[in-house]
Amino acid sequence: MKLLFRLTLLSLLLSLIVACGGTTTPPETTSEETEESTTTETEAETVEEESEEMAEGEDGNPVIGLIMKSLGNDFFKNMEEGAVAHAAARGDVELIPLGIQNETDVEAQIALVENLIAQSVDAIVVAPADSRALIPILAQASEAGIVVVNIDVEMDPEAMAEAGIDVPFVGPDNRAGAKMVGDVLAAELGEGAKVIILEGNPGAENAAQRAAGFADAAAEGGLEVVASQTAYWETDEAFELVSNLLTANPDVTGIMASNDSMALGAVQAVEAMGLSDSVTIVGFDNIAPIQPLVIDGTVLATLDQFGAEMAANGMDVAMEMLAGEARTGWIKTPIQLIQAEDLGGEAMEPEANQGEQAVIGLIMKSLGNDFFKNMEEGAVAHAAARGDVELIPLGIQNETDVEAQIALVENLIAQSVDAIVVAPADSRALIPILAQASEAGIVVVNIDVEMDPEAMAEAGIDVPFVGPDNRAGAKMVGDVLAAELGEGAKVIILEGNPGAENAAQRAAGFADAAAEGGLEVVASQTAYWETDEAFELVSNLLTANPDVTGIMASNDSMALGAVQAVESMGLSDSVTIVGFDNIAPIQPLVIDGTVLATLDQFGAEMAANGMDVAMEMLAGETRTGWIKTPIQLIQAEDLQ
After folding, report:
1. Distance separating alpha carbons of residues 369 and 383, to the nearest angstrom
2. DSSP state of 424
3. Of the candidates 94, 147, 103, 107, the residue with the CA atom closest to the CA atom of residue 127
4. Is 57 helix (H, G, I), strand (E, B) or coil?
């Protein structure tokens, strides 16, 4: 906690020093003018000494600088909070979170990079205010041996090539996201309606992509775009611009805002002009202040791009690169359309079918497992929100019934579906039938459980994998248990289905945590992902090993079985349990302390992202390799 306090203090003081020559705006305001406040040279020297001291890294942990845009924007406030929490959960990284005063202050971001280079940090994760302007200074960071990861706003590939750097981009498909939101507005307004697009900062690639996505939706939906202008991501700028544009174009009935801060300004302008009943607004980001307006219908829709998870994923990629792993290209992160029903409001009317739909079969594992129930619900909602997908969600009766999954693939091939998104029960057994699907011209996307690369190569297919880092996630959970129990404690690992790569990776991650934390693993055996199997196995293992004080369960279904066994043996006060998946039935047990921790791997978003990847491939885009999805440690405080 002391370190986090120091890091937060450093972020604030650096922002005071750098932004606008020392001028700052109080936290409760955004763009309004405030009295100038300058930092003295003595304070600046103190901050520099403090930051250099922290850049050395406590306990030898790598130091990562996270450079965001305006922390006056709720999206980046949330990103900072998520990143700080993720760093604390990992326990093997020291984070320096930094932001600028406004979205367009590129020079302030450059100065922050220069400061981090001077500190000799190990890595920089950056959401650039401009897609080209930061590349020269980031090239200097790379030349100094600092790992650089780009998040949120993609940097210009040509400019990077000219500078001699190849920086991975961890972020969402902004164009696809904006089109999803724009499609909802088009369905609401109907053909011929006149609309305005509020663009983001010129020079930022996400601004260009969102404007293009809105334009795509307008063209497909038959809307007339009467103006597409920038409001620089800012609420006040949007208020003024919308006021002027509505005065000049009184027949406008829709506004597409490229972020929610501008959507808020549009709402203010529309209300001030008495046009709330005739002008419909959509946004992008799902920040907290927009959510009540979505719920009450003031704003029709927005889009969640999971900023906190994006920064955490960027941090994970940086750590992988520091460990010697090569990461390049686009590491796509999830997006989700948000309407009233997603926030607890009343459901809107379903949008009209906007043309021919692609048919996608989603094959999951046991729908008796809450994780896959949630995955199915999220996938169905995402397909409905997209409007261009006909989804066939399928599951098997239990986690180990590989033959049933093979039969489901055969059935989908017979139906000549366009794509199959599959969470395989076994990492090798489904490859031959999926190769047949591929030969039949069906796009195949692998989610959740990674299929064996060698077996795929032998079968002549190259299927992209959309899923989390199971080993890293299990280690995060295991580290919490190790910290709780202390060195020398004896533990049990409950493994998943033999043959499933995620089961092997989670068992390995738990073993990593045990080795690092000085725990003794007295048994590591499978309970086949099932509650009843786990109950029986844990009962037997605790009888044979009465000095065991910890259980690491590779999914929450097995954690529930472990809880039942421990309670039936009267050992609740002496045996601590952790799980993996953050399913609904485990959450009350985490809150009350029965289960110490679990891990959220966002199954609904994973399936949605797999569906999006399939649609991109159907559109002719090449997608291969691992498209990593977010993970988040979950403890009691995260659920209260």
Report:
1. 21
2. -
3. 103
4. coil
Give yes or no for a contact between 482 and 513, defined as CB atoms under 8 angstroms apart: yes
Rounded to whole angstroms, what are the CA distances from 27 to 12, 24, 34, 175, 419?
10, 9, 11, 31, 48
Q: Which residues is 521 bridged to in the sheet?
A: 491
Q: CB 418: neighbour CB atoms within 10 A?
A: 20
Q: What is the DSSP letter of 155?
A: P
- Could you give the 3-state DSSP secondary structure of residue 250? coil
- Burial class, 172, CB count within 10 angstroms (exposed 0-12 / middle 13-18 / buried 19+): buried
Distance between CA atoms of 389 and 381, rounded to whole angstroms? 11
Tokens of 68: 């965001």
CB 65 within 8 A of CB 96: yes
Quick check: helix, strand or coil at residue 630?
coil
Helices (H), 190-344: 205-221, 235-248, 260-272, 291-295, 307-322
pLDDT for 401: 87
Q: How confident is the model at residue 346 (pLDDT cuts 50, 70, 90)?
A: low
Which stretches of 132-173 are DSSP H helices?
135-143, 157-163
Q: Give, to the nearest 10 degrees, the angle between helix 106-119 and helix 41-55.
A: 60
Lowest-confidence region among 212-221, 351-360, 366-375, 629-638: 351-360
